[in-house]
Amino acid sequence: MQRPAARSLHEAAELMGIRPGDIVKTLVVKRHDGDYLFALVPGGRKISWAKLRALVGVNKLSLPDASHALEATGYARGTITPFGSSTAWPVFADASIVGREVSMGAGDHGYSAFVDADALIAAFEATVADISDPE
Asked: Which pLDDT tens digit goes with each residue over 68-110?
């Protein structure tokens, strides 16, 4: 579904007729060893670095700059999705998306994919845990 440009999470949700928490951000996260992972976090929440580091079992995680994110996934920042990524990085999904239909980036600006979160989690064999905090 192509969506009109929105300036905020709340505006985007309103344009799509959904709640802000139904928009899932796919964040590419760099591990200390140079590999990456995907973190799926609903709108209105942010990665809890302490929770994600503990779950992954590392002391350091970071968000790569835009050029490294593009190189790691094949997608520009703001369009990143695990679907069709140039590398099948591990997926970590926030537990709050379980049992919901969610909207997420579809690989290009202005497009969204509406997916069943449980099917998404199963398809990517995602690790489900509490990995976020309120924004």
From this structure: 999 999 999 889 999 999 999 999 999 999 999 999 999 998 8
Domain ranges in the chain? 22-128
AA letter at 86:
S
Q: CA-to-CA distance for 65 and 62, rounded, in angstroms?
A: 9
Asked whether 98 and 12 are in contact (CB, 8 A), the reply is no
* Model confidence, pTM: 0.91
DSSP letter, residue 64: P
Domain spanning 22-128, CATH class: alpha beta
Pairing outcome for strands 23-31 and 36-42: antiparallel
Instruction: Kindly list the distances between the CA atom of residue 122 and the CA atoms of 67, 119, 125, 128, in Å, as whole numbers in the listed order.
Output: 29, 5, 5, 10
AA identity, residue 25: K
CA distances (Å), origin 108, targets 22, 51, 52, 124: 19, 30, 27, 20
